[in-house]
Amino acid sequence: MYTTSPYIRSLVAFILGAFVLAFSSLSFANRPVFVKDINQVPSDSMPSNLFVHNGELYFSAKDGPTDRELWKTDGTANGTALVKDIYPGIHSGINGGSNQNYASMGTTLFFVANDGIYGSELWKTDGTQSGTVMLKDINDNNISNEGPQNLTVLGSEVIFSARTIADEWELWKTDGTEVGTVMVKDIHSTGSADPGNFVVLGSKVYFNARNDTDGFELWESDGTGAGTKMVKDINSDPSSSSNPSRLTVFDGEIYFRATTSSEGTELWKSDGTEAGTVMVKDIHSIGSGSANPDNFVEFNGELFFSAHTQANGRELWKTDGTLAGTEMVEDLWVGTDSSTPRDFVVLGSNLFFTAVDDTNGRQLWKYDGSSSALLKVVATDANNPPEQLYSDGSRIYFRNYDATNGYEPWVSDGTAVGTDLLKNVFTVNDGQPWSPIDQFIDYDGKVYFGFSQSDEDALGGQGELWSTDGTGVGTTLLLDINQATNSSSPNYFTKLNGKLLLYADDGVHGKELWISDGTEGGTTLVKDIFPGYSGASIDVLDDGPDLLYTANGLAFFMAESSSDNLEIWRTDGTADGTFALTSTNDGVEGEDLEFVTLGNTTYFGFEDVTHNDSIWKTDGTAEGTSLFYDVDDEGRPRHFFEDGSVFYFGAEVSGDGEKLWKSNGTTIGTTVLADVSPVSNNGPRSLIKIGSTIYFRGWDDSDNPALWKTDGTTIGTEMVVGGFDNIERFFRKLDSTLFFFARKNPDGLQLWSSDGTELGTAAVTDFAVEDGIEVDDEHPEDFIAASGRLYFFMDHKDYGEELWTSDGTQSGTVLLKDINSRPGDSDADDMLAVNGTVYFEADDDVHGEEFWTTLGTPASTKMLLDSIPGVVGLDPDELRLIGDILYFEGEDGVYQDELWKMDVGELCPAIKTSGGKVVTFCL
């Protein structure tokens, strides 16, 4: 019978106990913990893309658990609901864009969406979750495609433009079935037809497209290949296009603007025949100047638009379709200056628009059929004029700015006295010059308004779906769709005196410095450097482990405390210990701000009104901050690298390019070490020390990137290997060997190693080469070394972006694990090594973006835990380790992009055996 010694048995019991303890701890103490909701301002769903279909109002919006998806409402809070979470998790299923991405045909709504698997494709819905489906994978599983465009109903079909890998952008159609979703015609057989500007007249759709020979011209289609043809080659010059655009139906014909070599861009019309496609009038008749007609609108049986002439500038014009009936209505800004009328809407017997005159800037105007007049001065800021005019038949709605309320919805009954602020809807940050309202639409007796997606989280929870009956009292919030709070977007995590220094926005003070001890009460604003919502405008380093530079118990950074004056600041994590070290008060901005420390003195590159891009020094006090070395005019000292009692940097020498410099902290000891770019003005990059040698990227005699090294002497500074096409900035050491990524024809991107000699510098392996030609989309990121292995993320042609590892050999450089095996990638990002365990963020398409760990083998590469069960992941970002606490930015659908932490000390318990050996167990 086999027996074990008491020592082995006790060791096994000890190890098992450690595992049980670790697993128990993992179940409770080691889960991610929310630290603090720094920004408690309510978040916004920012509904947009409003579209009426089948008696309901459809729109895109985001709530807490989902990003932008398809919603609908019947005008009541209870009748407002998510149609379907098309791209599960914190992802947008709806592309956004304008209403041309919708098409309503019977009871079916067609739209463009992205489910994260097939990319942006054509979808349809009957208003139910089960009835919301993708019609067809048109673009061959290309998850990054742009998706169909120009959805236009033609009879019982929807015509649109779509792109495939084989045929590029061509004309397509669908009858609402997969088999009935087909290309109408390959118009440009050797390239992309790029059909656009769709408009329907009768039983045909007209559009702008190009074929193999004629450039962009006017085309028509009845939905069949045979019935798809060019109407007329307006610009017969084979090297040019007429490029018809602004297609508008008026009085049974299509009006548009088109370009010819002789007349420029002028007003044209077409009845759908070649003979009936003619220029209406050469409005800008002098030479080949262009009238560029725009903003077409039908009013009083005529077509109104804006056009430009040499004599009058851009003014209001109209046409009845004849040469004689095409004339300027009025020269609103008399002379050659332009009033540039736009935003035309019709209300009753009047045409309303915005225009500029020589007195009032852009304001609201009206034309009554005989003359134009300024309706009312509504805009108080010339840079923020009235926009988005919309008429529901009884009133005009528009967005307008005034200094008191900021951008708000306004309303007009067509009279000056009846034109006023509808309601101060967005009371958060009143007076801010934002323009979030992007769309008005009438539905079921009321007008609803949507918002620009670019201003999400800007309105403090008031950016929701609103409706109005035209009165202030009748302007109400329909439903608070997104009940989460705003994001503080914490970033630039930095360790300072055992605490976490970070940059965050609480929704009140703007982006400012915060400090945290890992508790809610201990997470506080350091100082309101720039009072007000705009924040401190803090500048940070471009690279390096600490984006806020720390030394001797202080953090250094550049910040703006008032109008356009960037200065060097310091902080010890307290309000009193946070102050500016420089006081130039000249508005001059430093470039490539970098720091380095020797002893108790910190050196940095900075410029003031007297000295351009020089080296300064500080002992952490304002009195002890002064100019250290005036390198040269436009010297731009940068890429600082500390090596014991000296530091290296790159800086330009007037008229002779950038050199490698060395300094011992004295002016006499600050000298040029070597010219590392014999031909160009480039200097050293990516300095790293291995043993007694410092490696960096320089240039060879042919001005190609090269690997250099130095021992700190001029004679000992030399090129190792040149002739690269590119050397990436990722330099890492593994044991005593240097590793880096470089491109060198004909092999493309490869992992290289070097022992400091030319013979000892060679490619370890390449990653995606087909017939000697590099495949696109390869980009190594987050390159780290841990426990004798290299780790990096690689966007590879076969696997997408996944985690790779290397032991420094060709056979040992492999994909660690294809975490997301679907077409695409796991979006792996943000790596950090803790006690030999590598933590990173990844999405396996099942659990969302969560923490993953690895010890360098496929078996050990696994999700740490499903923080938020389901497809919505925690999305950890900005990883920073302080002691055993891993801080990161995360979101769980309730708290968006806020400060989280996780104790990682017990995840890899270090166990000391009786023999003194330390064994680390990572779970």
Can you characterise this structure?
This protein has 923 residues and is mostly beta strands. The chain is built from 1 helix and 76 strands. It has a 4-stranded antiparallel β-sheet, with no helix packed on it. A 4-stranded antiparallel β-sheet has the order 2-3-4-5, with no helix packed on it. Strand 52 and strand 53 form a beta hairpin. It is globular and about 85 Å long. The N terminus and C terminus are likely disordered.
Concise account of the structure shown:
The chain is mostly beta strands. The chain is built from 1 helix and 76 strands. The model is unreliable at 1-29, 540-546, 770-777 and 908-923 (pLDDT under 50).
Strand count, sense and barrel status of the largest sheet are:
4 strands, antiparallel
Radius of gyration, in Å, reads 33 Å
Strand content of the residues, in percent?
over 45%
Tally the helices: what do you get?
A: 1
* Global geometry: globular
Number of strands: 76
Q: Share of helix among residues?
A: under 10%
Side by side, the strands of the main sheet go: 1-74-73-72
Output mean pLDDT.
Answer: 86
Q: Please report the distance between the alpha carbons of the first and last residues.
A: 33 Å
Structure class: mainly beta
Pick out the low-confidence regions.
Answer: 1-29, 540-546, 770-777, 908-923
